[in-house]
Amino acid sequence: MRVVILGCGRVGAQLAQLMLRAGHQVTVVDKDSASFGRLGAGFTGEVVLGTGIDEDVLLRAGIDEADAVVAVTSGDNTNVMAAQVAKEIFGVPRVICRINDPLREEIYRSLGLETICGTIWQANHIRESLEGPNSGGELCM
Amino acid sequence: MYVMVVGGGKVGYYLAKSLLEEGQEVLIVERDARRCVALSDDLGVNVMQGDGCEASTMEEAGMARADVVVAVTGDDEDNLVVCQVAKQKFNVARTVARLNNPKNEKIFRRLGIDVTVSSTELILSQIERVIPAKPLIHLLSLRNVGVSFVELEIPPGSPAVGRPLRELGIPDDCVFPLVIRGGDQGIIPYGDTQLQVGDHVVAVTSEASADAIRLILRG
Question: How many domains does chain A have?
Fold first, then answer.
């Protein structure tokens, strides 16, 4: 599949490498060119410099032909806007949006966005690790 | 009327001040604590420190009883989320967003924001008015109905000069309500009116016919 990843932070870069290794076509967008360094020297996907809420940047990243868009920049609102543009304007079939603020995540999930809340997800995993059968052992995240 | 202004920069400050002078109830929500102190020293108690995108802050600020929510921060994505939270979570009747990138206007409209204001676009249209090199000046676009008000100057050698308007083959979805001659004479034209070099023609046209108008009047 053709996937466009918005945000080349730790999550975005990691996801880009995983998807590429699995044989998918990957384009990564970030407003800071230095962040592409996280992709490593062997990265063969495409990179586009710019902000994920700019239609022109999204078109350069091939959003009109993308099967999936993942919005994982450091800004919740940037992710929200980029995801809605991908879904509503460009009709991308699968759009996943990270929102770290749990309240905002709830609002946009109820509006029909496919959201992931890093905060709740991590808290739940840590709690499960603490209370689970391996409690006392190392935390597995 | 209770107006909630999110973003306490220069736009938010002067907007709030003007609304207060009109006797409206105004609350500014601003993220930066120091800016809040400066604002409340000047405007009184009508400033609240907080993130206008956060639903809990907005509940405390009484967003649910706001008649209008205006988002005027310097970031379009923040202004979008403020307005969407206001509409979806608090059922605010009217939301107004400031646009920094004028290209976002279409996107905001599609995503349910009632009114958008772009200072970039306002300045652009002013520049277009004073730069004569641009043959077709956009005066006003009526959103949603696909109609524009444009202004054209008739250049020397125009195929439209010296012929009655009715013979020019003007498309049906276009009318010329006004011709300005010599800079100070307003003419309401009709079918027999003949254009002269230097006339400024104001046209109301569908967006589809704008190019045809330019060809007819300027060649």
Answer: 1
CATH code 3.60.15.10 for B132-218? no
Chain B residues in contact with A55 by the CB 8 A cut-off are 103-104, 107
ipTM over 0.85: no
Residue A49: CATH number of its domain: 3.40.50.720
pLDDT tens, residue by residue, A30-51: 999 999 999 998 899 999 999 9
Chain B residues in contact with A85 by the CB 8 A cut-off are 107
Position B61, amino acid: A
Extract the tokens encoding B215: 């060809």
Task: Kindly state whether A85 is in contact with chain B, defined as any CB-CB distance less than 8 angstroms.
Answer: yes
Look at A64-78, B29-43, B144-158 and tell me which has the smallest mean pLDDT. B144-158
> What is residue A33's predicted lDDT score, i.e. its pLDDT?
94
Compute the radius of gyration of chain A from its Cα atoms: 16
Q: Is residue A136 part of a domain?
A: no
Q: Where are the domains of chain B?
A: 2-121, 132-218
Instruction: Enter the tokens of residue B102.
Output: 């004028």
Per-chain mean pLDDT for chain B: 85
Give dist(CA B112, CA B99) in Å, integer.
Answer: 14
Which residues in chain B (42-71) have CB-CB distances under 8 A to chain A?
Answer: 53-56
**What gap in Å lies between CA A112 and CA A86, rounded to an integer?**
13
Task: Judge whether A60 lies within some domain.
Answer: yes
Name the percent of chain B lying above pLDDT 70. Answer: 89
